[in-house]
């Protein structure tokens, strides 16, 4: 690594009183490149899951009221289904969505916490800064997601996105 290169790291900050988690990460790609990586299922499938897991999109309808249904495929054939319901979408700027565990047909599994995401994309010194505000229904829901390895897994997925962006340069 050159001494002038900035080391990119995912940061997490909890606001326990308000059941929120804030995630920040900079990527060495343009806003357009990073936006596409977050909204194009062919690209999402290449980075979203922490290795050795893989993401596989079943369907994506990227619009307000639309939905992304996908599964995380484990190294031994495990499948964990999830869905994202897009509530607000401002192309190349932000999206708001409900993230939930579910089944292959897109039904929400209410035994697991749901998360409201607000994701923003802004030009930064080295590329694009992505800021995510995740709101949970309760402190217990936030803690359950953390115990499931969310921070480690999401950080690993971001490293996958770094590799994907670098490969396109």
Give an overview in words:
This protein is of the alpha+beta class and 169 residues long. The protein is built from four helices and eight strands; from the N terminus they run E-E-H-H-E-E-E-E-E-E-H-H. The chain has an eight-stranded antiparallel β-sheet. Helix 1 packs across helix 2.
Describe how the helices and strands are arranged:
Elements: E1 11-15, E2 20-27, H1 31-39, H2 41-47, E3 54-60, E4 67-73, E5 79-90, E6 94-102, E7 115-124, E8 127-136, H3 139-147, H4 150-167
Antiparallel strand pairs: 1-2, 2-8, 3-4, 4-5, 5-6, 6-7, 7-8
Helix pairs in contact: 1-2
Which short descriptors sum up this protein?
disordered N terminus, 4 helices, globular, 169 residues, alpha+beta
List the secondary-structure elements in sequence, H or E.
EEHHEEEEEEHH
Mean pLDDT: 94
Proportion of residues in β-strands: 35-45%
Q: Write down the Rg.
A: 16 Å
The number of strands is: 8
| Contiguous uncertain segments of 5+ residues | 1-5
Note the main sheet: 8 strands, antiparallel
The largest sheet has its strands arranged as 1-2-8-7-6-5-4-3
Shape: globular
Structural class based on helices, strands and sheet pairing: alpha+beta
């Amino acid at each position: 690594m050159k001494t002038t290169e900035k080391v990119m790291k995912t940061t997490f900050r909890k606001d326990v009183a308000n059941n929120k988690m804030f995630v920040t990460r900079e990527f060495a790609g343009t806003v357009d490149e990073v936006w596409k990586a977050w909204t194009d299922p062919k690209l999402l499938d290449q980075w979203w899951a922490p290795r050795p897991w893989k993401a596989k999109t079943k369907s994506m309808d990227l619009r307000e009221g639309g939905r992304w249904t996908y599964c995380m495929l484990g190294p031994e054939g495990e499948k964990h289904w999830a869905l994202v319901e897009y509530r607000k979408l401002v192309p190349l700027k932000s999206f708001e969505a409900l993230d939930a565990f579910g089944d292959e047909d897109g039904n929400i599994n209410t035994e697991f916490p749901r998360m409201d995401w607000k994701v923003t994309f802004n030009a930064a010194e080295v590329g694009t800064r992505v800021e995510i505000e995740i709101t949970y229904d309760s402190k217990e829901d936030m803690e359950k997601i953390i115990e499931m390895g969310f921070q480690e897994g999401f950080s690993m997925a971001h490293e996958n996105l770094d590799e994907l962006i670098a490969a396109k340069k």
